[in-house]
Request: fold
Amino acid sequence: MLTADRGFYSFPAFSDAAETGAGLLWRVKADLRLPPLRVLEDGTYVSVVIDREIRGARREAIVRAAEAGEELDPHQARRVRVLQYDVPDRAGPAGTELICLITNLLDPQSAPAETLAYCYHQRWEQESAHDQLETDLRGSGRVLRSKLPDLVYQEVWAYLLVHYAINALICRAATGADIDPDRVSFVKAVRIARRTATGTARFSP
Reply:
């Protein structure tokens, strides 16, 4: 499944990604026009996304065709399933934030709404991983030391391997303590590793 945050959606990008055969779960702005065609048993509904270049009567004709179950030109429009829910204690007029997701997984049996919502929020773990690599491990504002392409590859792989090793230690420690690994501080784990790693690492490159 390919997830994307709000602000990355455009019809051409969504369409190109769908052409790969991947399952898509993309957040869109709450004001994106998503006409409800059919409400499903899990509270989600089927809609259609249309190329923004198509306007007026042509756009309305595509909506009517989608509603009638007719085949759509994938270069102009695609059926999607819409999932909307509120997240409490977030920014918003009522103290909540509306999350609006679209997916090309139209069957609620194979992709339940609760599972999709969980998967979308789990994507933030990847954002955390990026921050761990770019800031916590490498250091804010620092650039790679290597000047040659082969050495750049080597240095990048070194960062990735160290990142993996530290997270493996975190998972092992969390499992032993019967807690969620997400509750263990990556920054503190890096500091512990730096204090205890003395001398040259004794493994073959």
In short: The two ends are 33 Å apart (CA to CA). The CA atoms of residues 53 and 76 lie 9 Å apart. Residues 149-177 form the longest helix (29 residues). The beta strands are 2-4, 24-27, 38-39, 45-50, 77-88, 96-103.
